[in-house]
Amino acid sequence: MRALHIITGLGVGGAEQQLRLLLRHLPVECDVVTLTNPGPVAAGLRADGVRVADLAMTGNRDLAALPRLVRLIRRGRYDLVHTHLYRACLYGRLAARLAGVRAVVATEHSLGDSQMEGRPLNSGVRALYLAGERLGRSTVAVSPTVAARLARWGVPEPRIAVVPNGIDLEPFRFDQARRARVRAQLGIPEGAFVIGGIGRLAPGKRFDIVIEALAQLPPDCRLLLVGGGAEESALRRTAAAAGVSDRVVFTGEVPGLPDGSPGPDLPALASAMDVLAAPSPEESFGLAVVEALAAGLPVRYASCPAVEDLPPEAAPGAVRVRGGADAYAAALAQVRAAGPSPRAVPEAARHYCITRSAARLMDVYAAALTRTVPSPRHPHGGSPS
């Protein structure tokens, strides 16, 4: 089987890094095309041996890109096209159909209750989404929560399949030597209590709440923010106003897995943390939370379908926090007061192993190629096994 993955961009983000990890485990010959912004993940994919093409779109309404994409699909003679993220789903589904490919699968990575990929949801966005959805065979939801949202939107349930995001467990395993090394590299005292935040520095992630909470915590507490984005300057101003600039470390964008580039990667940074704070009020999955659990970290989160879709005993260290900075300060102070705990990996992290997700996606591909639809009754939700 030959498959083409079409994605809006390949900057460092959850969907983009998830695609790279997934392609390492799919027993399929895959190429990738990005509509714009090839970014660091494109370089990582090429290092993995994946062919990556850039369509070089100049904007959302660059309709000249559509015939270029149709020609690219025809030249590749692909059996299946798989699209990721809103703009790529719109252009990719249409181009695939125009190119004669009928097996079209799309993954919905970022559908929230009120926004999608940071854009507010309105009737126009919803109508355009549903019109494009009809051009495909199957829509993959990254959690049962997203599947329910799609069904409420009007996507027929037989067309929805749940394939959760997956992680590679081994790189996230806690390593004391790596913890000490990363802390030394970042100038974090060995005995500091380190609160981690992982994700795009965007308003919706609400990292300002954690910065304000930090100001209420003892001086030995530090905040390690892993990720890049347009909100960094605003967050630095928030830290300055709160008087904690010297206690907040911004790493910028980092690779999700070791790739030979200089500086610490995400698993190494997770080893340097003592707790993860995830204050985003609306998530479609909560990949950062699952990665933190794989590193054996306690987690304090506001929204995480990946945890909420499983029984509570699957992730006993993940606790939901309701409220703003005061609530987070209290929750983090409790973790600090409890002292270090064994960095054990809970069942929830094992439940989201990437090999399981890849196997489930292959079932979706097989169904799309045989003109049947995958059953929505086999998600990775429910009781972990």
In angstroms, what is the radius of gyration? 21 Å
**What's the rounded overall pLDDT mean?**
91
How do the strands line up in the largest sheet?
A: 3-2-1-4-5-8-9
Give the percentage of residues in beta strands: 15-25%
Order of helices and strands: EHEHEHEHEEEHEHEHEHEHEHEHEHEHHH
* Count of individual helical segments: 15
Largest sheet geometry: 7 strands, parallel
Helix/strand/pairing category? alpha/beta
- Uncertain runs with pLDDT below 50, 5 residues or more? 373-385
Please give the structural blueprint.
Elements (H helix, E strand, L loop, with lengths): L1 E6 L6 H10 L5 E6 L4 H9 L3 E4 L10 H12 L3 E5 L1 H13 L5 E5 L6 E2 L2 E2 L2 H11 L4 E4 L2 H10 L6 E3 L13 H11 L6 E6 L8 H8 L6 E6 L5 H11 L5 E3 L15 H7 L2 E4 L8 H8 L4 E3 L3 H4 L9 E3 L4 H14 L8 H5 L2 H16 L16
Parallel strand pairs: 1-2, 1-4, 2-3, 4-5, 5-8, 8-9, 10-11, 10-13, 11-12, 13-14, 14-15
Antiparallel strand pairs: 6-7
Helix pairs in contact: 3-4, 4-5, 7-10, 8-9, 8-13
Structural notes for this entry:
- The chain is an alpha/beta fold and 385 residues long.
- The protein has 15 helices and 15 strands.
- α8 runs parallel beside α9 and α8 packs across α13.
- The two termini are 30 Å apart.
